[in-house]
Amino acid sequence: MSEAAIRYKFRPRLPKKQKDIIVQKLIPMPHNSNQVIVMDSDSRGSIWDVKHRKYLRSLPNFSGIVANDGKIGIHSPNKGGLHIVDMKTGANVKTLIGYVAEGVNDVQAEFTPNGKHILYYHNGHQTLRLFRVSDGGQDGSLLTVVLFDEQVHPEILKNVAVLPSRKYLAEHLEIPMEDLETDESLDLRNLA
């Protein structure tokens, strides 16, 4: 096992105020190993060049999530809203969900691995939504994700086949349609 080496030491201070920044989180910039994002709150950060110990720019509305190419980031405050942030200017370039007064909830937003979509989970509504980065449209292809173990829950395939959007699954699994007719209402939370 190799030991970690300290490459650069610096003390982040805002240039005009000469005031120390209380660092909550450090995030490396994916496209430039000399740059780091210093988060001083849940929704505010700044970009620094650690090699030259230089402040580059402020990110006044930023949640600490950056795309793999380092060009855009996400601002998803707990009070509501979802915005795409230009990492070069720090400005909101696209609003996917406007600011809505719905109380403080846990929200999580992440880029998909290819960076073309944003997954947004809202704890208060218990919803998972998928947005296209290119045009900001909501992609309807994400409906339900069910993880299951057939040996532990052998009835799970039948339960999924009952969903209206998954009738083709019943045909593929050769489950007779009369077996799918149930009087019970299907609770999606208990599929697995």
TrEMBL record:
Pfam families: Beta-prop_NWD2_C. This is NWD2 C-terminal beta-propeller domain-containing protein. PANTHER family: BETA TRANSDUCIN-RELATED PROTEIN, DUF4062 DOMAIN-CONTAINING PROTEIN. Residues 17-136 form the NWD2 C-terminal beta-propeller domain.
